[in-house]
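Below is a typical protein record.
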Amino acid sequence: MMMRTILWRYVALRFVGTILMTFFACFTLIYLVDFIEILRQSAGVEGVSFLKLATITFLRMPAFAELTLPFAALVGTITAFLRLSRSSELTIMRAAGMSVWQFLIPGVVIAVLLGVLSITVYNPLAAAASAESERMRAASLKRNVSSLLKGSDGAWLRQNSADGPSVLYAANTANQGLFLGNLFILQYDEADKFLARIEATTAFLKPGYWDMTDVLVVRPGRPPERYGKYHVATNLTRAQVRDAFGSLFTVSFWDLPRQIELAEKAGLSATRYKVQHALMMSRPLMLAAMVLLGATVSLRAFRFGGIQTMIIRGLVVGLGVFMLAEISRQFGVSGLVSPWTAAWVPALVACLYPLTALLYQEDG
C-alpha cells in the first residue's frame, strides 16, 4: 500500500507539472497576442506608458486563460503519459500488476482538484483582475469620440427618460457597466426629432441620471458648449445596465448567485449568468474527462508505433468536445435548453466516450 501511495504521488506530480506547464504556455501566447492588440488600440493616445499597457494586458489574461484549462488538461495528460511511456515507466507499472484504472486515479484526482480550485480561488482572482483592467483601460485609452462609429468595439444602449429617448454608445465599460468611458449620447424628442449630441470622457450611473465629466454638447443651429460636469436623466436601473454592459469575465463564481437574484428581481433574463454558473460547476468533470481522453491516445507503447496518429486523433476529438460545449452553451444562453443541460451534457459525453474507449482497449 505504501509503495502504491508513493507511485500515485509520483504520477500526480507528473500530471501537475505538465498541465500547469501547458496552461502557462497558453497564458503567455494569449498575452502576446492581446498585448499587440492593446498596442494597436493605444496608437495615437498620449500619456499612456508601455508599462501601463503591459499591466492592463496582464490583468486581462487570467480570465482569458481560464478558458484554456480543458485544453491544458488534455495536452498535459498526453504529455505526462508519453513521458512515462517513453521512459518505460508505464511498462514497469503494468508489469507490476497495475491496471490502467489504477494509474489513472492520480490524474483524475488532480484534474478534479484543479477544477475545484479554478472555480473557487482562481476565478474570483481573475474576475477582480479583469474588473481592474477594465477600469484602467477605460481611464487610460481615451480615444477620439467622433471616430467611434467606425469601429466595432464598445457597447450600445437605448434609454428613455424625462429628457426623452436617447441612444448611448460607450467605447469602454467598467464596474459591470456602471462606469462608462469615452461615450456619446444622441438625444431625441418624443417625435424622434434630433435634439443634441453629447460627448463625455466618463460617466457614472447614479439613481435616475448619468453623472458625466468633461462634456461637449452640440445642438443644431447652436455653437458647441463645454461643461466640466453634466447630468443626463435615465430610467435605467443598475441591474439593467449590468445586463446590457456587464462582462461575465468580471463576475466571480461566488457573485454569480447574487447576480442571478438581482437580474430576476429586476425582471431581466438571468439565463447567461445561470449558464455560466452551471458551466463552472461542471468544470471539474470536464477536466477529468480531458484526462481520460488524453489517456486513450497516449497509453500505447512506443514500440508499437502510430503514436503521432493517435495524438492527432485525440486532439481532433478534444476540439470536437470544445465545439460541442460551445454549441451547447449557445443553446443554453438562447433558452433552447436548460442551463444545467447545456453545461453538463457535453461534460458527460466527454467523460463517457473515453471511458468506453479505455474499457475496449484494456478489458476487451
